[in-house]
Amino acid sequence: MRIHKVYTRAGDQGETSLVGGLRVPKDALRIESYGTVDELQAFLGVLRATLAEADRHPETCRAGVAALHRVQQDLFDLGSTLATPPEHLDRVKNPITAERVTWLEESMDAWNETLQPLRSFVLSGGGRFSAASHVARTVCRRCERVVLRLAREEAVPEEVLRYLNRLSDFLFVLGRHLAQVFGEEEPLWETPLQA
């Protein structure tokens, strides 16, 4: 793929093209779906850059950077699927597969082995690494909701929804893992009876 010019003027009237050439409004649910995936990918880039610039725990940082880079690649593939109408899904070069979902689960299982069980919900803000992961997690949940709405109207491969669902869990566990490694607080929600 070569991109010579960023602007094309083709969208000046509020429409864009899907894979296969179909023109649709830029606020169509399918566009909102892959646009939210792109937003999530960008938030993961912020977290990845934050880890790459850290001066402590280089092994954890390298592993985190590599994992987030892999997820960003997956999200571009997932966005490509969402940019493709159901009748053209055979054109998707790298569809999201069950193996990618399994990798998310296996990563979480490895991190969870060293984490203390939770007694309440985690509040974001215990530290910059975990907070960035929790922000990405909430964007992922929003992304999942938008794609679910699309799936009610048009065919969406089930692995897409499964991947997004598991990815939000992955980002939650990653946030806890990073909090533990970097010695960040993990503030918990307390009900009035607990306070």
Task: Please summarize what this structure is.
The protein has about 200 residues and is mostly helical. Helix content is about 60%, strand content about 5%.
Number of strands: 2
Strand content: under 5%
CATH topology: Hypothetical Protein Ta1238, Chain: A
Sheet with the most strands? 2 strands, antiparallel
Structure notes:
- By secondary structure, this protein is mainly alpha-helical.
- It has one domain (15-110, 121-181): Up-down Bundle (Hypothetical Protein Ta1238, Chain: A).
- Helix content is 58%, strand content 3%.
- It contains five helices and two strands, in the order ββααααα.
- The protein has helices spanning 29-52, 58-82, 98-112, 128-153, 158-181; strands at 15-17, 23-25.
- Strands 1-2 form a two-stranded antiparallel ribbon.
- It is elongated, with a radius of gyration of 19 Å.
- The relative contact order is 0.15.
SSE diagram, text form:
Blueprint: E1 15-17, E2 23-25, H1 29-52, H2 58-82, H3 98-112, H4 128-153, H5 158-181
Antiparallel strand pairs: 1-2
Helix pairs in contact: 1-2, 1-4, 2-5, 3-5, 4-5
Question: What attributes characterize this protein structure?
Answer:
195 residues; mainly alpha; Hypothetical Protein Ta1238, Chain: A; two-stranded antiparallel ribbon
